[in-house]
Amino acid sequence: MALVNLKDILNAAQRQHYAVGAFNVVSLESLQAILEAATKTRSPVILNVAEVHFKYVDLETSSPAIRRAAQKAPVPVALHLDHGVSFEAVMRALRAGFTSLMFDGSTCAYEENVEKTRQIVKMAHAIGVTVEAELGHVGGAEGSSEAAEDKGLFTDPKQAEDFVLRTQVDALAVAIGSAHGLYKAKPQLDFARLSEIRQAVGVPLVLHGGSGIPDDDFRRAIQLGISKINVYTEMAQIACRRIREIMERDPSFISFPDLLIAAREAMRDLVMEKIAVFGAKDVCAAPNSCASCPGCAE
Ligand SMILES: [Zn+2]
């Protein structure tokens, strides 16, 4: 099936009130886990490769394999640069055949974020690549499993309207109380703010820092307009836990590939659970079930 961009899968999600999961690829096992989960749940999926993870995923070497695996999957898959902070990372992802990218200018001053995002959107759109940007700032250590240190700066709905209009982004990551990494206390999402942002902008909204948010909060956020949810920390956590269990049971265990398989299966099961909570299970089961997705239209 087709490699698609964010527009292809998020517009249908927005219309039908489910969210597409975006899960990080940090190794071959995580790639396999995510695609297996999407296949089993018959759900579209987004493969996130974060710039901070380029040390684990050599972009030029790995992208052909990731693209090939995505094309072979029986569901639509977007290959998305997660938190592209540098211009260099954005260009490398474009060259490597990514269908989508996030440019994260959230630590820049507002006008600088607008200007940089606008230029990247212009460039990406010229070759059919979609762009997600971030306004406000989602706290915590991006793309890592370190504890969230702060709650970040929340997105201002009025500014969001101006930002989307001027940059022409395809999706907007909002800061409404979620954070990257592990939560120290239960996150308090600002649902009223989310509703206001939803009314101010038309593009699909993205929730970062999905690890540790209660299922009911996910459902409420999706009803209020979240169409893409990023999850990474919980995947790393469950893979480590599974490996630790095996090693504790048998400290002399030496079959390294079997540890990787166990980790892969644990991540796959977690991704399947998230897809179900996000309401995306079986959306690819019936032909034309998500009208704008080229996969379903074939
Ligand atoms: Zn993020």
What does it look like?
The protein is α/β, with parallel strands linked by helices. The protein has a single domain (3-297), classed as Alpha-Beta Barrel (TIM Barrel). Helix content is 46%, strand content 15%. The protein is built from 11 helices and 9 strands. Strands 2-3-4-5-6-7-8-9 form an 8-stranded parallel β-barrel, surrounded by 10 helices. Helix 6 runs parallel beside helix 7. The mean pLDDT is 92. The structure holds zinc ion. Residues 83, 138, 142, 180, 208, 230 line the site of zinc ion.
In short:
The protein has eleven helices and nine strands. With 298 residues, the protein is an alpha/beta fold.
Strands, helices and their partners?
Elements: E1 3-4, H1 6-16, E2 20-24, H2 28-41, E3 45-50, H3 59-72, E4 77-84, H4 87-95, E5 100-103, H5 110-125, E6 130-135, H6 157-167, E7 171-174, H7 191-200, E8 205-207, H8 215-223, E9 226-231, H9 233-249, H10 256-277, H11 294-297
Parallel strand pairs: 1-4, 2-3, 2-9, 3-4, 4-5, 5-6, 6-7, 7-8, 8-9
The chain binds zinc ion (ZN).
What is the CATH architecture annotation? Answer: Alpha-Beta Barrel
Task: Let me know the average pLDDT.
Answer: 92
In the CATH hierarchy, what is the superfamily?
A: Aldolase class I
Span from first to last CA?
9 Å
CATH fold-type name = TIM Barrel
